[in-house]
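Lab notebook: predicted structure, single chain.

Context: the supervisor wants predicted structures on file for every construct in the current expression panel, including those that have not yet been purified. This is the next one on the list. No modifications to the sequence; it matches the entry in the shared construct table.
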Amino acid sequence: MCSSDLNQACPIGAPERRVIGHELAADAISRWQPALCAGGGALFSYTQLTDDVARSQVLDGSSPGLALMSNPIPPDQVPADKPLVYAPVGLSGLTIAFNIEQQPSPTAEPDMLEKAGRRFLSMKLTPRLVAKLLTQSYRGAVAKVPDVMKKNPIGLTVDPEFLELNPDYKDLSFFVQPPDALVQLNGADVTSLLWSWIKADPDASKFIAGTPDPSGMVVNPDEKDLALPTSTFPRNDQSCVVSVQGSDPAHPITLTTCTLDSHPFANDMHDAGRSSSRGDTKAVQPVVDNNVVTTAKVDRQAPGQRALLAVVDAATASRYSLPTASLLNAAGKFVAPTTASLLAGEAAMKDGPVAGVLAPNPSTTDPAAYPLTALSYAATAPSTLGVAAGKDYAAFLRYAGGPGQEPGIASGQLPFGMVPLPDKLKAQTIAAAATVEAQAGKAVSVDKPETQPTDAAAATGGAGGSVDGGSGGLIGDMGAGAGTGNTAAAQKGVTGPVAGSAAAAGGAPNGATQPVGTTRRTPSLPAPAVGALLVAILIVGGLAATSSPVMQLFSGGIRRGLRKGVTPTER
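Prediction complete. Output recorded below exactly as produced.
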């Protein structure tokens, strides 16, 4: 049955082209899927994996064909015969989203009570404030408070440093003060970006190293001197508290609550965003049921008393209608993740280890740039694809670099929170699509040395040869001579990289870039010399036939000399 009969764009049970990759692009691909398979197009499925796993599958050959990630694979790890094509497909950013309602004291003045239950819509955060949230440094973030933290604030909204930047929150956090943020368990490139932003700030770095903030707040000792950046959110303080229940002293019931019970990880950013929007801390607690200790989920925060933060991508924050904090950038400006600030963040990026693949720049001094701007790149090795697969994945890239960059709420459009790619990046994606389709299934030629040049030959320039450029060129230039390299591709106006060889990254040459040893014809001898050579061969042969007794006597003398400690040379 055709899926159109069920008002669906994609036919049920149709063969799929698999795509794997990070969560940053998950919303976009779910929007694009119906448009891609409409009219008989290929059906694309998306498996969400961490950036590290996506890179690993590309390297070991288990990737289904196309993988999405933020940071590229180091060029020296890519096989020379399987160069990679990178194509930008999404522009977004990491955010600190929040769902915090105004909570005046029940005994507050009437004008304050009128604000009860209203939602805060703005917030300013510095790297040090975010560091406090992520290092379990507020008293409410741990089960058992260390002695050195006894004077720390219980949560963010009563921290003097926070209130100085956000005076509207003063006296409006009576019931709940958020001590941390909902964060995902898995690693991600954007998490490393967040920690890089924190590390680059002197105040935040000093705080993590043990320097108190101006009000005397100190870092959790279990989180002191974190090795940054890291792709995860460490929760090193796993302290527990024990309580005893039961009326029979002889048979007490012991209940243990640990930090990870009260402050668990979220499954991913979508889970963190959804839970935050519902007032769900995801916490669990031990309970007694018929004298048996079990675990029960903690109720959601009551309406009017919600106070939760979550580290999520901009599209997830938009999906769950969560306001996002303005973050302090290196220029000293508080910037929210808007279309203009994300585009400014992209403009501040520069090439990373792979030419044409932009690296985030959380330390940019552009006052308009959002510091946690990030790109999603699709990566594939065309030589490992079949012709049909190459055609389908090329169609995916053309859509991602074309109609898929139009924002909106309809199927096929870019979700809010993501920003349309600049024209130069769209052109790079379209060029990558052409390369994938043209090179799919075609083996990349990698010359191997036929003979290794001797030292003498190398010294006299006798090891000449050519270097194949199939593994180091740019998009649209695969298989070109290495002498062209990036320069030739740049002259053609091509910006998308095919990364793979160490030579392409300026590293040490590998088997694909070693000179091929040349062979030389032995010079011919004149006729008289040939005759003399034959006579010499006959004479040597005759001596060899008659020299056996002499050689035996000589070798015996050597053996006797060795037994007496005399070397053959002396003898």
